[in-house]
């Protein structure tokens, strides 16, 4: 008989994955907030993508959003 107060391995795994996703979303929002290469409307759109599709939105921002903003900034300098 197992103790219902002690989490099982799958519960710990799901909790760890959930915490990693929350940390990823928070890091993405912080990165978005620090990026000054976008207009407020563009930042709002990115934020909505990150909130409503946390995994896909975060990955898209980290792969495309940051680079696009950096390239745009370097092109004007």
From TrEMBL:
Keywords: Cell membrane, Membrane, Transmembrane, Transmembrane helix. Signal peptide: none annotated. GO terms for cellular component: plasma membrane. It is found in: Cell membrane. Residues 23-66 form the Cardiolipin synthase N-terminal domain. It is a multi-pass membrane protein. Its main location: membrane. It comes from the Bacteria. The keyword Nucleotide-binding does not apply. The chain crosses the membrane at residues 12-32, 44-64. Pfam families: PLDc_N. InterPro entries: CLS_N (IPR027379). This is Cardiolipin synthase N-terminal domain-containing protein. It comes from Arthrobacter pigmenti.
């Amino acid at each position: 008989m197992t103790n219902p107060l002690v989490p099982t391995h799958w519960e710990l795994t799901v909790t760890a994955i959930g915490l990693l996703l929350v940390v990823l979303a928070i890091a993405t929002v912080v990165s978005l907030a620090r990026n000054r290469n976008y207009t407020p409307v563009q930042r709002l759109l990115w934020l909505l993508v990150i909130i409503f599709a946390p995994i896909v939105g975060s990955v898209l921002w980290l792969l495309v959003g940051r680079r696009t903003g950096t390239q745009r900034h370097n092109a004007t300098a």
